[in-house]
Amino acid sequence: MSTRRIIVIGGSAAGPKAASKARRMDENAEITIYQKASDLSMASCGYPYYIGGFFDDRNQLLCSPAGVVRDSKFFWNAKKITTKVNTQVTSIDRDKNMIQFTDLLTGEKGCAEYDKLIIATGATPRKPPIQGIELDGITTLQSLPDADYLRKVRDEGTIKNAVVIGGGLIGIETCEALHLAGIEITLIELLPQLLTFLDKQMAQLVEKYVMSKANVILENGVAAFLGENGKLTAVKLQNGTEIPCELAVVAIGVNPNTKLATEAGLQIGKTGGLIVNEFMQTADPDIYAVGDCIEIPNLLTHSVVHAPYGDLANLQGRVAGENVISGNVAKFPGTIQTGICKVFDYGVGATGLSEQNAIRNGIENIETVVNASLDKPGFMQGKLLVTKLVVNKSNGLILGAQVLGPGDVSKQVAIWAMAIQGKMTVDDMANADLPYAPPYSLAIDHSIATAHIMQNKLNGFFTGISAEQFKKKLNNKEPLILLDVRNPDEYEQMRLGIGEKLIPLGQLRKRLEEMPQDKDAEIITWCKISLRGYEAALILQANGYTNVKVLEGGIMAWPYKREK
Ligand SMILES: Cc1cc2nc3c(=O)[nH]c(=O)nc-3n(C[C@H](O)[C@H](O)[C@H](O)COP(=O)(O)OP(=O)(O)OC[C@H]3O[C@@H](n4cnc5c(N)ncnc54)[C@H](O)[C@@H]3O)c2cc1C
């Protein structure tokens, strides 16, 4: 059999993964990566942490796990893969199985033939087509040169004010990086909430926290960038406000890079990504595509999504790398859109469907619960976690989870992601056998406790109310009896201050006469995380009260202003 010729376009995440897997499957294949940028295998997810000074050695963004910089020499010596950096592929001739390319340094053009081609061209950050967008001081954070620019800003230390446009993952990570550089940040988001993969209440908890570090402006877009002598001096918002700044980082999402593929007649889907099958193959059997340039199925909604995540790019690269050698044997079925983001000292992550996303996709029979508790015991410096769980009410199937807080969010999100992919129900999770020792978790892990609350709710033992629903009732001035069952010292330190009565749980049985005569009165109970609130509700129910609700997640999940 003649030597297989594999060409990969794109040399950052998905491309090198595909090329490396192909090499592992076939020692003799002729494998070449064409890369427009001058670097290879850049860890773009690490850029915010390089800019923020979590580490100073730029090479760490380019290193293999063994600490070797993944340059052309590395790819050839370690993997026998030819890499052509600073080389842009300019067209694909599908009739001749050939690509055309240009060396961006010399201008020299060339062509090369392939047996199988893998497109891994990534995505390009969106930029608003508005006045002043070309001014100095406006950047995106997508490429290594972008990261170099922002790291220089940190090292020089002259910039005092910056505006970050876009309250998604990259926008928020950039906020932290620039905050650590001593820069005053204003974060602008066009939508009514940050991090749209979260439900509103969870997003509001994030907003409250981010506001302690940066100015946050929601529901306002950028109308223009203002400047003097070619340099940015202010950002003008749609409501006319001008925010003086010397730096603006635009992080309003990315568009798949599909120009090459479209010009070659390959099909683009409704999200703008290239269409591939589960083998990562386009309609042309000799062309595969992977990473940020494609669209993939959401396994829960069965709709297609553009999911530009580094982990998915690598998984897809591996599948395509195997298939170009072995025929279509490996599959990438799709995504449940699991993601996590560092928001200063909080982790914020989600997997599966949020409540709003489930409703948007026509899944209506759902139940949700919010749980707040520590990730491990207080004596091991446990930290707070808040989880919102979304399940299918008719069969108990877990549909989604959102987790945030200073605790170990990553573990929680990973547990729920596996539960969703394994098609587990709340009852399965209620008895999950997870690892336990005090340095790592509670005897009943936060995820299992969340499943228990949901199980109680589905079985009618627990009637919860979310902070959002509670706030609506307060705004509507509905007649409510509000009961905080913590201790007086806790109440002195922190309280909602919305007209609540304080009766510590331990005194409730003796002070029932202080509760209303009307046993059907609507009573809302809470404590710090609502465990005592739940027990108070059970006492009241046992004493004939028929309409008692527990504030889910207690004060810890209250995203609104508190008196204290
Ligand atoms: C700041 C930042 C933080 C991120 N954080 C996370 C995170 O925490 N978790 C997560 O899951 N994801 C994260 N991501 C997303 C993740 O980095 C991307 O999903 C991933 O890099 C996509 O890989 P890719 O190979 O498809 O595309 P890219 O990494 O964009 O690589 C595509 C490459 O193709 C090259 N190219 C394009 N066109 C051509 C052409 N015509 N010829 C030759 N070469 C070409 C480009 O030069 C580029 O290097 C982050 C991204 C950024 C920018």
Main beta sheet: 5 strands, parallel
Radius of gyration: 27 Å
Distance between the termini: 76 Å
Arrangement of strands in the largest sheet: 3-2-1-7-19
- In percent, how helical is the residue content? 25-40%
Bound molecules: flavin-adenine dinucleotide
Concise account of the structure shown:
With 564 residues, the protein is an alpha/beta fold. The protein is built from 16 helices and 31 strands. Strand 1, helix 1 and strand 2 form a beta-alpha-beta unit.
Provide structural commentary.
With 564 residues, the chain is α/β, with parallel strands linked by helices. Helix content is 27%, strand content 25%. Helix 1 (14-25) packs parallel to helix 8 (310-326). The radius of gyration is 27 Å and the shape is globular. The model has no long low-confidence stretch (mean pLDDT 97). Bound molecules: flavin-adenine dinucleotide.
Defining traits:
single chain; about 575 residues; alpha/beta; five-stranded parallel sheet; binds flavin-adenine dinucleotide
